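Task 17 of the worksheet. Students: predict the tertiary structure of the chain below and write it out as structure tokens. Keep your answer in the requested format; marks are given for formatting as well as content.
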Amino acid sequence: MGYIVESLRLLAGGAPRKPEKHHRHDAVNERYAEKRKTRLTKAALEAARDEHKSTCCNKWQRRRWATLIAVNLLFVVSYYFDVQLLEGALTASRFVGFHMADLNSALQVMLAFKHVVLNLIIGTVTVFVLWLLLGGRTFCSWVCPYHLVAEWAEYLHLWLAKKKIVKDHTFNRKVRILFYVLFVLLALVTGYTVFETISPTGILSRALIYGPGVALIWVALLLAFEIFYSRRAWCRYVCPIGVTYGVVGLFSPVRVKYNMENCHHEGDCRKVCMVPHVLDVTIRGRALQVDSDLASDCTRCGLCVDVCPTDSLNFVVKGIGKHL
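Model answer:
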């Protein structure tokens, strides 16, 4: 229950909490005490990073990019060659005859039209079960085309920031919930799926399949804003899709697990994370127990798993107990 409550709190924009010493498990307090006695020198920490870099191949990032590109290309191939394997777009589709509907899009349609059709229910249930098993926000990092181009744009932002050409501006994460409520109310009051009109996920998906349109100008403006002003702003502070799938992922068996025993609290994982608040547990003194599952706002992108020099972060499937 603690995991569910904390995940919901973070999804709603709450700040991670620093636990009091008496709230932490005894085993955790003992390990923190041992670490204070044997702190790594800066040289030793750099050596650990260098050793990791020599063996790390960014395997999860490569797998994720390959999966994301393959899923979106499957739509393109099915349309151009009329093989009827995967029809439609990410917002609504059919896979070998099975209806599939993006959960947030389905909600917008139901609210706007005040009517629910059977195919929409079937598609919603199918997608709900799929992402319940795979991890909710896994959709964001493993399927959403905007996530990929925004990730590439982020590299440019970081390079410009390193050159001190731009500076990253952050916003209060609670604005994401305000946007969520706003889009819900707009659909309900106007009878129009306003969010779907401006959603870069839907725009890019349709552009890939059916050809580019004027709406791509909006996507370009979003990317420019993220490159020159606020890193990953759309995904972090606006997009309601992430909230929807974050709730779905509350009960998912696929999670990223943090083990604090060997962690040097170097912070490399938080630097690469799109939602670094879920990795607050990796800060010295923040872990409640030796093993902690990252909150459901985690996109399961695997960047933290790839970059961690001490193998303290890993994908797990609850109930199986083995690393993926």
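Marker's comment: The chain has 16 helices and six strands. The chain has two domains: 2-39+253-317, 62-247.
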